Structure formats: structure tokens, C-alpha cells
Amino acid sequence: MRTSTATAVLLAAGVYAVGLVRREVHERRRQELTMAEMHQRLCADTATDFPDEYGYGDLSPTERSAFIHANRTLSLVGVKYRVGQLSDRTLEVVAKAMMRRSSMQMYWAQNGSLRDQESQDRVDRRFHTIVDKEYVDAHARTK
After folding, report:
1. Model pTM?
2. Alpha-carbon distance values, 118 to 22, 112, 124, 128, 139 (Å)
3. Rounded-to-integer distance, Cα 108 and Cα 100, Å
4. How far apart are the first and last CA of the chain?
5. FRET partner for 55 with CA separation of 20 to 30 A, picked from 68, 70, 114, 120?
């Protein structure tokens, strides 16, 4: 009888621990999505009002808009990758399509290394590695 009681207690503790881990993962994803939304608003508001702070002061308004759009697109795709909505293979397909646009290639040429330096973990580094590979491939095709 003692063994079954101990087993039941261990099983209950295990189920509780799994629930805690799942809640932590869910909360982290929720926070990442909230931060991505805030970043999108920041890009829309600040980049148009303070282009010199982003290094866009010497660009024409059209080029500046293209860079802001590229930044926002990369941020959205990055958060989708981070929360698991894109696999590595799907990200490769998406990045290849993004890099067909000259505005995305120009943005990545200027900002790709900085974005990589800002990487916080292996997920960010993997994201940047995949996007950079597609940039290099696209750049090689245009030569």
C-alpha cells in the first residue's frame, strides 16, 4: 500500500512540475509577442520621426520607408520563428522570398551584422544565420 501512495505522490508532483514548465513556456511566448508588438509600434513611430538616430538620415523618404518596412518584416518573421510558428526549413523559404526584394538586401547589407551582434541566444543566432545565408545566396545571384 505504501508503494502505491508514494507512486501517486510522485506522479502528482511530476504532473505539477510539467504544468509549471508549460506555464513558463507559455508566459515567455506571450511576453515575446507583446514585445514584438511594442517593437513594431516603436519602428513605425520613431523611425519616421527621428531618422538620424537609425542611420537613415541620408536616405530619401522612399528608401527610408523601404528600410523601415524591411526592419518591421524581419522583426515579425523573427518573432514567428522564436515562438515556433516557423521551422528552420520554412524560415529558409521565407528568407529566400524576402531577399528577392532589393530593399531587404540593402537593409540586410547595412544592418545584418548589427542585428547578429544583438543576438541574445542560440535561437536569435540561428535566425540570423539562416537569413544571412539567403542574403549571400541572393547577392550572389544578382552578380
Report:
1. 0.71
2. 27, 10, 9, 10, 23
3. 12
4. 76
5. 120
Residue 9 C-alpha cell reads as: 505522490
The number of residues in the chain equals 143
> What is the DSSP code string of 104-128?
HHHHHHHHHHHHHHT--SHHHHHHH
Residue 48: its pLDDT value, please? Answer: 62
In 50-121, which residue ranges form alpha helices assigned H by DSSP?
61-82, 88-98, 102-117
C-alpha cell at 43: 519602428
Predicted confidence at residue 116, as pLDDT, reads 82
Any residues with CB less than 8 A from the CB of 78 and at least 6 apart, and which?
A: 36, 124, 127
Closest CA to 82 of 42, 139, 34: 34
In terms of C-beta distances under 8 Å and separation of at least 24 residues, what long-range contacts does 38-43 make, across chains too?
39/75, 40/72, 40/75, 40/76, 43/68, 43/71, 43/72, 43/75
